[in-house]
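ok trying again, last paste got cut off:
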Amino acid sequence: MAVVTAPLLKLESVSRTFGGLAAVSDVSLEVMPGRIFSIIGPNGAGKTTLFNMISGVLRTSSGRITMEGRDLATVRPCDFVALGIGRTFQNLALFKHGTVVENILVGRHRHMKTTVIDSILHYGRCRREEIAARQRIEEIIEFLEIEAIRDKIVGNLSYGQQKRVELGRALAAEPKILLLDEIVAGMNQEETEDVARFILDIRDELGIAIVLIEHDMRLVMDISDRVHVLNFGRTVTEGAPDEVQNHAGVKEAYLGTARERAAS
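nice, full thing came through this time. structure:
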């Protein structure tokens, strides 16, 4: 008998409006465990708005988002990480004056159960938790191949290195699903290839599902299990990478119609 796997994340007819502007309209999708799911579309298509609703930054205007069957409308934004949702941001959100280790340690906060008194005395459970946290951080640093910069101040690192640190911080929370918002934007070809390898390893070795917003179509088509296309906040199509890249509606969304191209 075939094993039926339930979606890890499910969006049902989700919409978000800002005044009279519909940023996302009636979008439905499912992300399965251990899969790389990419959301693509031209600038202004509603991709980041969709991410912000999934991660609790914004509430939906209508529709429903569930994580392992739990309605996210019932979850406080501060509890989304504990639910298993991790995220990196389009614009870096790091502590620039901290070291690489210190920044990644921030991601372990949800796993720390010690009280203020425990922290002051620094013994027993507090000490055990800190040892375990630092051990996990070292594993992440090795996984992302940033041993050489582990004690460097983040603000002094290159853009590509800072992106790895932000990815490491998200992994430190041990998410079930990881939202990557334009993770390779601004990177050169070598850095992009490295990140692509890390994303595949996160899926294959850590078993974490990934939802990716990305403008690098070569990366998307090379590593995605499934691709969802948005334009003007609405779904154009969804399918396997080879199906999507040959879809007439996708070409129109990115290139415009023949009439629009002639007018330009």
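cool. Strands lie at 9-18, 21-31, 36-40, 62-67, 70-71, 85-88, 177-181, 209-213, 226-231, 234-239. Residues 40 and 229 are 5 Å apart (CA to CA).
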